[in-house]
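Subject: Interface between my chains keeps coming out wrong

I've been trying for a while to get a sensible model of this assembly. When I model each chain on its own everything looks fine, but I need the whole thing in one frame so I can look at the contacts. Pasting all components below, labels as-is. Any help appreciated, I'm running out of ideas.
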Amino acid sequence: MSDTNIVLSAEGVCKSYSDAGNTVDVLSGLEFQLEKGEQLAIIGSSGSGKSTLLNILGGLDKPSSGQVIIQGEDLHQGTEKRRAQIRNRSLGFVYQFHHLLPEFTALENAAMPLLMRNLPLSEVKEEAEKVLRSVGLEKRLQHKPAQLSGGERQRVAIARALIGKPAVVLMDEPTGNLDRGTAAHVQDLIDGLNQEYDIAFTLVTHDPEMAKRTGRILELKDGKLVER
Ligand SMILES: Nc1ncnc2c1ncn2[C@@H]1O[C@H](COP(=O)(O)OP(=O)(O)OP(=O)(O)O)[C@@H](O)[C@H]1O
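Reply #2:
Try treating it as a single job with all components included. I did that and got this:
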């Protein structure tokens, strides 16, 4: 596989926290590469650093040293504005508690990444309707988050993560607060969209069933990732 297929790479990523003279090394020179369209699960015991890693990969937190390269660009170099552009263009996010904006409709929430790109409104609306249809929410476009079920909210969050066709979607326990049936439905959806758009998915999960469905499982252990 040539380097042009690598959409994300972590190179010697370290993260330490210092507090009252104590230093905790959470990530210690972590390395991995993610290819176009790859599905990867990151597992690890509580406190092993999964959320810390996901935040660093998404540009929400900085490594103490090392680099995260996304589509050839160093995520943590340059200005905040540049980082925001890389995040908007190349990354999508789905968190366990979805972080939808309560005062906006499903359509507006899903449209947010495209609205930030200042595209024509008619085009944004059309795309948002299309992506919400693909997650089975065509009848909920004008509903606000409080009027949606937990599974529906999670699907709006997935629609929002996918609308800009990012190279990589980062997911933190994407089905963590859903029942088995809805979780399986969301997982089918991720598989379908992964195949349709060739988007790479990195998900952090405690759910062994979900981890097994991805092509590759890495375990975070002693600050490094180990192939499983
Ligand atoms: N801001 C911080 N200051 C100090 N230590 C921190 C900070 N954030 C995280 N840590 C420590 O880093 C370690 C990794 O935390 P992290 O939340 O990444 O783990 P996790 O694998 O996601 O855990 P869980 O599965 O329980 O959610 C923990 O030991 C935690 O105490």
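Reply #3:
Confirming on my end. The helical segments are 50-57, 80-90, 106-115, 121-134, 150-162, 180-197, 208-213.
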